[in-house]
Specification:
There is one protein chain. The protein has 138 residues and is an alpha+beta fold. The chain is 38% helix and 17% strand. The chain folds into 2 domains: 44 residues, no CATH class; 69 residues, no CATH class. A 4-stranded mixed sheet has the order 2-1-4-3, with helices on one face. Helix 1 runs antiparallel to helix 2. The protein is elongated. The two termini are 14 Å apart. It comes from Seriola dumerili (Greater amberjack).
Length: 138
C-alpha cells in the first residue's frame, strides 16, 4: 500500500510546511515518501488473486443473502486457503462447487457458499492513458 502511504505523506508534508513549520519533520517525511516511490519501482509485488463469494440460502442476514462479493486474497493466498478461512466463519454452510448462478432450490436451503477465482479487469486511469508509464505504476 505504498501508494496510499505516499498520499498520507503528502498530507503530512503540507501540514509540516504550512501549518506547524517543522522542517525537520518535513525532511524526514519527504525522505520516507521518496523511499515509498523507490519501493514501487524496485520491489517485486505479488499480484493477489481475487475471489467471487456468493452467499445463498435462508440462513444469512439480508445484507449477505443472495449476494456476491469480490474479495482480494492475501499475498500468495490460494483459493483453497481462502475457502478454508471463509468456511470457518460459516461452519454450517455447504460449499457449492460450481460457478453458475444457483437455482431456487439452493436459494431456499439453509446455508450455501459459492467461491471461485475471478480475474480483475484493468482500467487504466485517464491521466495515464497514451503515456509511456511503467507497469509498476499502472
Amino acid at each position: 500500500m505504498w501508494e496510499e502511504a505516499i498520499t498520507l505523506c503528502k498530507e503530512l508534508a503540507e501540514q509540516y510546511e504550512n501549518e506547524i513549520f517543522d522542517y525537520e519533520l518535513l525532511s524526514k517525511r519527504l525522505e520516507k515518501q521518496a523511499k515509498f516511490y523507490e519501493n514501487i519501482m524496485t520491489i517485486l509485488r505479488p499480484k493477489p488473486d481475487y475471489f467471487a463469494v456468493g452467499y445463498y440460502g435462508q440462513g444469512y442476514p439480508p445484507f449477505l443473502k443472495d449476494k456476491v462479493f469480490i474479495h482480494r486474497g492475501k499475498e500468495y493466498e490460494r483459493r483453497e486457503d481462502f475457502q478454508i478461512h471463509l468456511m470457518s466463519q460459516f461452519p454450517s454452510a455447504v460449499r457449492l462447487n460450481t460457478t453458475t448462478m444457483p437455482g431456487d432450490d439452493i436459494r431456499n436451503s439453509p446455508h450455501q457458499i459459492q467461491c471461485f477465482t475471478v480475474q480483475p479487469v484493468l482500467e487504466i486511469p485517464p491521466r495515464l492513458k497514451n503515456k509511456p508509464v511503467p507497469d509498476q505504476i499502472i
